[in-house]
Amino acid sequence: MPSPRYRREMPQRYRLEAGKCKGCGKIFFPPRLICNKCGSQEFEQVVLPENGKIVTFTIIRVAPAQFEAEVPYAIAIVELENGVRITTQVVDCDPEKLDIGNEVKLVFRKIQKEGKTGILLYGYKAVLV
Amino acid sequence: MRDVYVIGCGMTKFGEIWESSFRDLFVEAGLKAIKDAGVDHLDSMYVGTMTSGLFIGQEHVGALMADYLGMAPIPAVRVESACCSGGLAVRMGFLDIASGNSDIVLAGGVEKMNDGADVTFALSTAADQEYECYHGVTFPGLYAMIARAHMHRYGTTRNQLAQVAVKNHFNGSMNPNAQFPRKVTLEQVKSSVLVADPLTVLDSSPVSDGGACVILASEEVAKKLQKPMIKIIGSGVATDSLALDQREDITALNAVKVSAERAFKMAGLKPSDIDLAEVHDCFTIAEICILEELGFAERGKGGLFTEQGHTALTGKIPINTSGGLKSKGHPVGATGAAQVVEIFEQLTGKSGERQIKNAKIGLAQNMGGSGASSVTHIFSLM
Which residues, other chains included, contact B148 with Cβ-Cβ below 8 Å and sequence gap of 6+? Predict the structure, then answer.
């Protein structure tokens, strides 16, 4: 994950910035340039709510190299209070005890690092509330 | 559009093929297909491969394969749509002939996954890099989330998932080209190592090397050949969001549904007209969802349909008679073409022990990523 590419996603990963379609109101995370529902290209910037609930989840036991030290870890699709769904790790919990419907809150955490000597990469993870 | 026929096919054994290189695998399959078809030249070729760049550092695959197949300077195009690259190569070959541009086309696929690459990472490039993989999602993880949602919503059981693997390994045990031609039990599937809960290693297709090719021809060429052949009577492609979380229904594979609807419409057929199908069982849950999207099972009942034996060799719609991706193996770029090889052999009566009697109409469905792309073809014995 070279640094320029990482920097572009900072508004989403650090501040949960999303795009709300001015045509139909659909909220996109990450933001898009054209709405896939109404075709509008006019958006306003909104910030996602931090609370939501688990729609589905898994426990990753075989991970790509950069996450190998963290297995087993939980990954979930979380539906936030405004209906937007995001994919995120669920941490600070026993993954075996998670369930669909669990209420979670997004927090700011280190996600991975850029190679062996690169920068640390941050973003959101979910914790149980 | 002109009619298009499949006049021959060839594939390598799937598995850990240490003695063959990436190019060897494709050329071996290609030469077998050319010999089987009985043609002396090609007008063009399409090569499906998902990520040869990450697996072995090789791109520019169309020209490489045309050269090593002894066919340069014919036009050669590399086709990529993750795990449905092979199916899409067949689709592009179909369009090439249907449009009147070519008369004889080789369409196939290849992948070399066992040469030392980080396979989990390479496969994950079919998912959304910035918003799925960044957080540590893997492909088994995405299908595991589909599985858990399906179980929660429809009551699909652990045994029903495992039954897909049991059935496909039973079929694959009769396929000499299969990577794992051995039977497994429900208990073995359930108690094997967890990869991403609730999916185990035996819910998952293996990491495979392999190549598969078919030769497509126009009616003008095909009718001169005195041999059994099949006709492409339906062809459909569709797409969906790359990221699973962007879909309204996590248990639905809309690209599969739409690609099949397009193929059925073109063929003028309905699901009950199909005698057998090869579908993209990259994980057991995938076959269950696909049964529903293709219209073979009711929504939410794919697991029950499997458990009741309807998809077995002796069932009303035999699914994955080859052993599927699960037992035969899943060299990702080759899979879609290998599905067509199985349908060709079944419809022309060359499937040996696993032969479905009197099969006339077959369907092949090949899927990319967590379902963001799908290709469906329907074939009829001529």
Answer: A56, A57, A58, A100, B197, B198
| Dist CA B315 CA B94 (whole Å) | 31
- Where are the domains positioned within chain A? 1-48, 49-129
> How many CA within 13 A on the CB side of residue B331?
35
The CATH classification number of A49-129 equals 2.40.50.840
A10 part of contact set with chain B, CB < 8 Å: no
Express as a percent the part of chain B with pLDDT over 90.
99
ipTM above 0.95, yes or no: yes
Q: What is the pLDDT of residues B64-111, one digit of tens each?
A: 999 999 999 999 999 999 999 999 999 999 999 999 999 999 999 999
Q: How far apart are the CA of A72 and the nearest CA of chain B, in angstroms?
A: 9
DSSP SS3 for B56: helix
Q: Which of B59, B358, B136 is nearest to A109 (CA)?
A: B136
Helix (H) or strand (E) holding B296: none
Which among B51, B130, B135, B193 is the top mutation candidate for probing chain A, defined by the most A β-carbons within 10 Å of its own β-carbon? Answer: B135
Active site residue B83: yes
On whether any CB of chain B is under 8 Å from the CB of A59, the answer is yes
Domains of chain B: 4-118+207-222 (3.40.47.10), 135-205+233-381 (3.40.47.10)
Instruction: Give B264 to chain A, closest Cα distance, Å.
Output: 26
Angstrom distances, CA of residue B127 to CA of B130, B200, B202, B350:
9, 20, 22, 37
